[in-house]
């Protein structure tokens, strides 16, 4: 494959855009450097770079693209939005339609508010929890990533962890002191933290199914115990479902697993590919938000018609019967194929998969927490990533990210991917 144009573009980008990318995880820093490949066009499960190379896409834009690229139903909705005017700064009908649709899928969202990104959604749930409890501290789990706002960049996950900067420069020490980080899938450290600081804790924030140190499910009973301990301390439970909502079922991880939080942060899939975030939860807590309550949150672009219509259209596609069964079916074929391919080449891997999302870890150990994910072989992953890229299979350039299937992937795409993986694993020996 020839990457001449991508390389040249990256050189030019470096002169004008910091690091040449608009989000650090897009750089190839975590896979040994080099120029990231620039895409020109996407359709269904494929995209094409500016040199004309075709890829099967498992990045799915880090999660949002669950229907594949340029899905006709979503494209039609976005076109309609463009024709009718994209921003009014007034209420629209679309916001209400979408709020009702989200609530139908996720009943714990008694009241919602739309924002523009997952970062904003998470940031605001913390403010609302602090307003409601009149406490300041939050507890989070090591390796979970909750966007780039100050409070949650303390011992954060995929992007920062990949870059080896778990604490971002520019986050005040005083802010970091308001955050306690405990390991995922263990309750004893949480108990300990709550014993020490419980009466100061506003909220416990968690990805109920982790997407940021790979796909990691909570052990049976873990979320239930987190919820019980959180409430016992008088704190609120916040689920960050920015990745997990509508990824594994039509609804949230909370609907799949039957554990509901007090507040939920959403993003990614619910925008159908356009910028979006949302947060919501119990009415009595959400009434803290302006204009009803004293917790301020606002947004010029919040609830904009294009994101609303795109999001509604996306949910209309994935609410159809059989969508998650099909993602699961293809996910299982992919998982088996990858395991066999690795085994044939004598390469040790572990795969964590839930439905149409999976992570390959280069290790022979199981991975249920961040420490274990961190200990897996990043150098081997980096080689695998590049071998796959050169065979037209696009993965996220980090050992901590997931592969995401879309409704556009077909069994033949999966077979091609497995064939590419056989060669890629063999090249690692
Ligand atoms: N929470 C989670 C679980 C995420 O994975 C992300 C983004 N990867 C965010 C929050 C932040 O969302 P955004 O990038 O839209 O700000």
Automatic annotation (TrEMBL):
Q: Which HAMAP family match?
A: HemL_aminotrans_3
EC class name: isomerase
Q: What is this protein called?
A: Glutamate-1-semialdehyde 2,1-aminomutase
The molecular function GO annotations come to: glutamate-1-semialdehyde 2,1-aminomutase activity; pyridoxal phosphate binding; transaminase activity
Subunit architecture = Homodimer.
Please state the Enzyme Commission number of this protein: 5.4.3.8
Sequence positions bearing N6-(pyridoxal phosphate)lysine: 268
InterPro entries attached here?
A: 4pyrrol_synth_GluAld_NH2Trfase, Aminotrans_3, PyrdxlP-dep_Trfase, PyrdxlP-dep_Trfase_major, PyrdxlP-dep_Trfase_small
Q: Where in or outside the cell is it found?
A: Cytoplasm
Its GO biological process annotations read: protoporphyrinogen IX biosynthetic process
What keywords are assigned to this protein? Cytoplasm, Isomerase, Porphyrin biosynthesis, Pyridoxal phosphate
Name the reaction it catalyses. Answer: (S)-4-amino-5-oxopentanoate = 5-aminolevulinate
Source species, domain of life: Bacteria
**For this UniProt entry, what is the primary localization, expressed as one broad class?**
cytoplasm
Q: In which pathway does it act?
A: Porphyrin-containing compound metabolism; protoporphyrin-IX biosynthesis; 5-aminolevulinate from L-glutamyl-tRNA(Glu): step 2/2
Q: Which cofactor does it need?
A: pyridoxal 5'-phosphate
Instruction: Give the organism, scientific name.
Output: Domibacillus enclensis
């Amino acid at each position: 494959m020839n990457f001449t144009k991508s390389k040249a573009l990256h050189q030019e980008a470096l002169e004008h855009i910091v690091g040449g990318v608009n989000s650090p995880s897009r750089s190839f820093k975590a896979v040994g450097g080099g120029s990231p490949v620039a895409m020109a066009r996407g359709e269904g499960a494929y995209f094409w770079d500016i040199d004309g190379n075709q890829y099967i896409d498992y990045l799915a834009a880090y999660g949002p693209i669950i229907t594949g690229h340029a899905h006709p139903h979503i494209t039609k909705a976005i076109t309609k939005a463009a024709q009718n005017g994209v921003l009014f700064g007034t209420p629209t009908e679309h916001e209400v339609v979408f709020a009702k649709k989200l609530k139908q899928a996720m009943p714990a969202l008694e009241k919602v508010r739309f924002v523009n990104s997952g970062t904003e959604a998470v940031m605001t749930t913390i403010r609302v929890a602090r307003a409601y409890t009149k406490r300041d501290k939050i507890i989070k789990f090591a390796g979970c990533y909750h966007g780039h706002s100050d409070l949650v960049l303390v011992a954060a996950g995929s992007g920062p962890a990949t870059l080896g900067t778990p604490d971002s420069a520019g986050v005040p020490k005083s802010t970091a002191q308001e955050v306690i980080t405990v390991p995922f899938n263990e309750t004893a450290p949480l108990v300990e933290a709550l014993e020490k600081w419980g009466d100061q804790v506003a909220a416990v924030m968690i990805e109920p199914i982790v997407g940021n140190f790979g796909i990691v499910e909570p052990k049976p009973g873990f979320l239930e115990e987190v919820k019980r301990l959180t409430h016992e301390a008088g704190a609120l439970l916040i689920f960050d479902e920015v990745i997990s909502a509508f990824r594994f079922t039509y609804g949230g991880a909370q609907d799949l697993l039957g554990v509901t939080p007090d507040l939920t942060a959403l993003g990614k899939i619910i925008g159908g590919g356009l910028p979006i975030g949302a947060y919501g939860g119990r009415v009595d807590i959400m009434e803290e938000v302006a204009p009803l309550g004293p917790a301020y949150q606002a947004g010029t672009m919040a609830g904009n018609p294009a994101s609303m219509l795109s999001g509604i259209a996306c949910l209309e596609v994935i609410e159809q019967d059989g969508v998650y069964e099909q993602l699961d079916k293809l996910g299982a074929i992919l998982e088996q194929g990858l395991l066999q391919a690795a085994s044939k080449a004598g390469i040790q891997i572990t795969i964590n998969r839930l439905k149409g999302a999976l992570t390959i870890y280069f290790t022979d150990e199981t991975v249920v927490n961040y420490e274990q994910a961190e200990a897996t072989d990043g150098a081997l992953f980096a080689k695998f990533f590049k071998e796959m890229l050169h065979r037209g299979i696009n993965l996220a350039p980090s050992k901590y990210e997931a592969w995401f299937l879309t409704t556009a992937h077909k069994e033949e795409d999966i077979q091609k991917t497995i064939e590419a993986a056989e060669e890629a694993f063999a090249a690692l020996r």
